[in-house]
Amino acid sequence: xxxxxxxxxxxxxxxxxxxxxxxxxxxxxxxxxxxxxxxxxxxxxxxxxxxxxxxxxxxxxxxxxxxxxxxxxxxxxxxxxxxxxxxxxxxxxxxxxxxxxxxxxxxxxxxxxxxxxxxxxxxxxxxxxxxxxxxxxxxxxxxxxxxxxxxxxxxxxxxxxxxxxxxxxxxxxxxxxxxxxxxxxxxxxxxxxxxxxxxxxxxxxxxxxxxxxxxxxxxxxxxxxxxxxxxxxxxxxxxxxxxxxxxxxxxxxxxxxxxxxxxxxxxxxxxxxxxxxxxxxxxxxxxxxxxxxxxxxxxxxxxxxxxxxxxxxxxxxxxxxxxxxxxxxxxxxxxxxxxxxxxxxxxxxxxxxxxxxxxxxxxxxxxxxxxxxxxxxxxxxxxxxxxxxxxxxxxxxxxxxxxxxxxxxxxxxxxxxxxxxxxxxxxxxxxxxxxxxxxxxxxxxxxxxxxxxxxxxxxxxxxxxxxxxxxxxxxxxxxxxxxxxxxx
Length: 488
Prior knowledge:
This protein is of the alpha+beta class and 488 residues long. The protein is built from 17 helices and 18 strands.
């Protein structure tokens, strides 16, 4: 059996021998379904589709399919299920855990051509669209209607809404709008056997039986392929303010969060933090980025966004909050964006840290959910463990208890890796945290799920997978341990 090794020893995977290999007859059948131009075998295009954007995971698929309709997706899946051809669904391919690229030779189904807005109700704010719509494009469409997407990500210019749903993406405005479980009203999903499951409702309230749509939010395409989405969108605020603040220590960041929730209340829409190493990464590796609070670096930075309908009221609340925080010694310095360009420059720092880390060299990325009081403890523990061998960077969505912990090294190094794992997962489990706050499990953490979920819960997940996908063709080797799915 084929064996593949990823990321400097982090993962070793064996190809499931029950899966068929693609043949010329299979390719011809896909051409009959999609037309020749939508069955891609070009080496350059396949190379891009086989590789994640961080270039940590690389498959060897020989075919990329580009369906234009949900019905074409179901025909592809029906055939692949019958032939036992493994499949990987793919959207914008912006994931960070190897969930959207093949592990071996899986058939790639990319939904980028399914990018139509089907309807928008400007009374209720309910948008219905196809899964291949790019998040930023949806937000631009809604802006003309006075609404906005309840989700904002650094990858918004590339990621697809279907992928966002499939990973239950969190993002920058989670503190205000909550998770997609609360904003998704309905889905259309193609099941592994080719059944098209119509759950594309647009009702806010519907208590008729099991709410099945939640089964397909956050499962990373392992149970079905999302083809259409119905989502509740909030009104776009007419007044937005951005402040970048400096704090002397992590305790001050926590106190600032408490005061922000108390003083800013309903207008608080984002509360992000980054440490001095994260800021240094952005300043060093991102083109055009400047220190917003010169001349030297502070220990911590907090980015606060407020959004509301009354400009003068919002400014007064923010100014009163900042003045009080400064007087109480919670913040050491700060600046409020005076125009859209300055606001964008602040967000560029926060959203560009992942890009900066990639440019700096090899990076071990961890996406943890922890009690806010414990979040920075793990950063300091990792610095103590690794010493001068690596740079440990901490940043994330402090308002949601979500830490992005990154270990940066010039090249991938097994000696560094063995000091990171399994320690980081054991530490997170000990503190009752989650090893994946918003990135998903993908290939990277499929075998680590027990650190966050009980054995009974994982077994039930495996049972659901086997029920809906008895041939295990859909995104294999991801989300759940392969030993639970293929050894029966």
